[in-house]
Automatic annotation (TrEMBL):
GO terms for molecular function: nucleic acid binding; ribonucleoprotein complex binding; zinc ion binding. It comes from the Eukaryota. Keywords: Cytoplasm, Metal-binding, Nucleus, Ribosome biogenesis, Zinc, Zinc-finger. This is Zinc finger protein 593. PROSITE patterns: ZINC_FINGER_C2H2_1, ZINC_FINGER_C2H2_2. It comes from Poecilia formosa (Amazon molly). Pfam families: zf-C2H2_jaz. Involved in pre-60S ribosomal particles maturation by promoting the nuclear export of the 60S ribosome. Negatively modulates the DNA binding activity of Oct-2 and therefore its transcriptional regulatory activity. Its main location: cytoplasm. GO terms for biological process: ribosome biogenesis.
Amino acid sequence: MGKSKQTGNHKGDKKKNIAKKWKTKRRTKDLDQIHSDMKPETAAKLLRQDVDYDVTGCAQHYCLHCARYFVDMRSLKEHFKTKVHKKRLKQLREEPYTQAEAERAAGMGSYIAPKIVEVKTQPVEENMD
């Protein structure tokens, strides 16, 4: 399809590139950030957040692996069955890329294959509904 050539939005001298906004509109967390969120202490904080009316579902229904908020428990459970969620779980099975691995790839050590991390869908609490 190609990059958008459209700039600005009828403001005259303020020329903003709209293509940049489109690229970053649906940006989600990277896999290494999600791996750090999956640590038990951070995961507990994310799954038990205080009520926040500015976030979808008042921040009560959160998918840890996809870094998404949902309106209610039913939509969260349906999300667990989708192809998008299952694909994300598969991506998270590989250990995150580290500086040590980058140095080994550059020839500063012997290659060690990335480890497989077991990732399961988060447990769902029925009483949150």
